[in-house]
Specification:
The protein is mainly alpha-helical. It is elongated and about 50 Å long. Helix 1 runs antiparallel to helix 3 (78-99). It contains 4 helices and no strands.
Length: 134
């Protein structure tokens, strides 16, 4: 029950994007302190990474290492970081829209759908509210 190349590539792309989001939001916290919505969303991104790593393990695929730590953008203000968060979550939703085409496996599709939903229904709106407050 192994993944084909398209499925492995999609899983890797999903994990890389979640790694990037986690590292970016953690950097914002390092730069500005325990500010919302970053403190909540960085924890969610860690759960997203864990969900994807479970799929890597289930299918016997070695996950890539997180190459984003220390290599993410830094922002001049919380407002700038929130605006970047809006775009990152829009991009994440679009990524999952493309990744749905990579597989028919119900377990993989379920994880992709849950992560897409979190980005669209919770993270995006939290960052949009942050931008409006700024």
């Amino acid at each position: 029950m192994s993944l084909n190349k398209a499925e492995r590539d999609a899983l890797t792309a999903a994990l890389d994007d979640e790694y990037k989001a986690h590292a970016t939001y953690a950097q914002v916290i390092d730069d500005f302190g325990a500010v919302r919505p970053f403190i909540n969303i960085v924890e969610a991104e860690a759960r997203h990474i864990a969900a994807l790593l479970t799929l890597f393990e289930r299918y016997g695929v070695t996950p890539p290492k997180n190459g984003w730590v220390g290599k993410v953008p830094r922002f001049a203000s919380i407002a700038d970081a929130c605006a970047a968060g809006v775009q990152a979550e829009i991009d994440n939703v679009a990524l999952y829209d493309r990744l749905f085409e990579s597989t028919q496996r119900p377990d993989v599709l379920q994880v992709y759908q849950a992560l897409r939903s979190a980005s669209l229904d919770r993270h995006l709106s939290a960052f949009q509210r942050c931008v409006q407050r700024s």
